[in-house]
Amino acid sequence: MANLFNLGLDPDVKEQQDFTIIEPGNYRAVIVKDDLKSTRNGNGKYLEIEIQIIEGKYSGEKIIDRLNIINQSMQAQNIGQGKLKRICKMLDAQYPPADTSDLYGKPFEILVDIEEFISNNTGRTLQSNKVKSYNKIVETTQSW
Q1: What is the pTM (predicted TM-score) of this model?
Q2: Are 26 and 110 in contact (CB under 8 A)?
Q3: Number of domains, the chain
């Protein structure tokens, strides 16, 4: 029996939810959180963006996208900076941004896909979601 008394466990911590794989498709979403992190080797930086779906069957579910904005690989860096530029333009925010505050809470559309990968821990094939593209919401009006 493990004695957990006096460990300082947080009584208000949120319960861990099961991981949901979101079906491929287009979803309306907003950026709710981000963090600038160092790459594993410490030679670069990536912007980790937390995106929350705001409509439909998966409303409330979140997806993480990582943008390599400083990287030894010029190709990876160009892709990451290009995605960030697209997000800024789509949300009418300045590029390059001084910070990410202008990206929060503004609805846009993401194209979500599923990718498979091999777990480093178990060697098993697992699935996760990937943001394939970011798009401005285009409202269509039907005229009769």
Answers
A1: 0.81
A2: yes
A3: 1
